[in-house]
Amino acid sequence: MFKNMFGKLLPDSLDYLRQLDSNALHSYVLDKLRHGGLAEGIGMVDAHRFLNVWKANIEALERYTPKIFPGRISFFRAAEWLPPNPEHPELAWISFSGKGIEIFEVPGNHHTMIMPPHVSVLAAHLRSCMWAETAEDNKTSEMLLS
Questions:
Q1: Can you tell me the distance from the alpha carbon of 73 to that of 70, in angstroms, rounded to the nearest whole number?
Q2: Distance CA 41, CA 140 (A)
Q3: What's the pLDDT at 139?
Q4: What is the DSSP track for the chain?
Q5: In whole angstroms, what is the distance from residue 19 CA to residue 140 CA?
Q6: What pLDDT does residue 143 have?
Q7: Of 144, 104, 135, 133, which Cα lies nearest the Cα of 121?
Q8: Dihedral angle at the C-alpha atoms of 122, 88, 2, 20, nearest 10 degrees?
Q9: Which positions of the chain have pLDDT values less than 70?
Q10: Residue 2: its pLDDT value, please?
């Protein structure tokens, strides 16, 4: 999984990375992030935080066993691809939906899509999904009552 996610960004072998102590590993990752254009202006404290969150996310991902969601999934995809994220992250969700997947494209990348000005587009898509779900719930309730 590590190689799939970070192979281009962190080209050295896992054996090499495992030999590094915590500070050396953080420095290594920080250097690679800076050269990859992902962490402009980030310092060692931020690199430590990033790595701690990243490790926790990977551990949670490895322990998580997803189940089929009986409804339709609304997927909000960033318009700008940002390595090391997959180019089509929505593909992984298709098999977990009982009623398919609807994809909404939001300007920005994985991080900036939740910040102004892009977040307004995300909010509009979310609003649309909530109204559609409310309308579907009302329709179902009317059918059950009649």
A1: 9
A2: 52
A3: 64
A4: -HHHHHTTTS-S-HHHHHHS-HHHHHHHHHHHHHHTTS-TT--HHHHHHHHHHHHHHHHHHHH-----BSSPEEEEEESS--TTS-S-TTHHHHTTBSS-EEEEEESS-TTGGGSTTTHHHHHHHHHHHHHHHHHHHHHHHHHHH-
A5: 59
A6: 60
A7: 104
A8: -50
A9: 1-15, 33-44, 47, 135, 137-146
A10: 45
Instruction: With 0.70 as the threshold, say if the pTM is over it.
Output: no
pLDDT one-digit tens code per residue, 36-70: 655 556 666 776 777 788 778 878 888 989 899 99
Place of tokens 């997927």: 75
Select from 87, 25, 12 the least CA-distant residue to 55: 25
Confidence (pLDDT) at 38: 56
Measure the CA–CA gap between 5 and 29, rounded to whole angstroms: 14
What per-residue string of b and e applies to 4-27 under the rule 16 or more CB within 10 Å gives b?
ebbeeebeeeeeeeeeeeeeeebe
**Which residue type is seen at 54?**
W
Both tokens of 15, joined, read: 């054996």
